[in-house]
Amino acid sequence: MAFLSTIPQATDRIKDSQPQILANFVAIPTLLEINHVGFVGGSDDGKHIKVDFTNSATHPLVDAGQILLYNNSNELYVKKAGALAVEGIPFTKSSNTLIGYSYLPSGLLIKWGFISVTGSQTITVPAVPPYSSVYNIQLTAITSSPTDTDKTIVLKAWSIALGSLLMDVRGVKRLSNNDTQVSVYWSIIGV
Q: Looking at domain 95-190, which CATH architecture does it have?
């Protein structure tokens, strides 16, 4: 039986509405025990077993002093009070590929990738999702053998253009300073 919020009425005699009141007492735990530890008299009563999020078609507003956790298009978002962005931080959104990205709940965006460069060239980091600020760029030269230690990668300059990060790099031999082919893992942290 479903919960009856209008029982008992002010004019009801308790003995007449007792079946509906008892049905409400059965319905309340049935509802509250969805994804929660039931009323079993233990210290875990009422605690979450799991949390299900229905899809929110919009990015909800957050009240002052609060934080929201919500689902939009099968991604979990966090949004703090005072956030300037309409949408929260999609901290479950990622692209787990060789050239990919991931968000942290703090709002940091981490991108990574792999490329081979010969001499000076520009690496264009994909614009989606875009950066507005960059805090750290890491480049790691990969060698083909433990004895091949003469190759390095140099970050000459970087800039942000239309959300894309452009890195001017140079693959070079350490000892001779001559251009060479270098395989590079790169990672970038920003917002």
A: Sandwich (2.60)
pTM of the full predicted structure? 0.74
The pairs formed by 56-60 with CB atoms below 8 angstroms and a separation of 24 or more are 59/86, 59/87, 59/88
Instruction: Choose among 89, 184, 90: nearest CA to 137.
Output: 184
**CA pair distance 108, 134, nearest whole angstrom:** 10
Cβ contacts of residue 172 below 8 Å, gap of 6+?
119, 151, 152, 153, 154, 178, 179, 180, 182
d(CA 34, CA 32): 6
* Domain layout of the chain by residue ranges: 1-50, 53-92, 95-190
H or E element: which one contains 183?
Answer: strand 181-190
Summarize pLDDT for 52-68 with one digit per residue, the tens: 999 999 988 888 888 89
Question: Helices marked H in the chain — which ranges?
Answer: 14-32
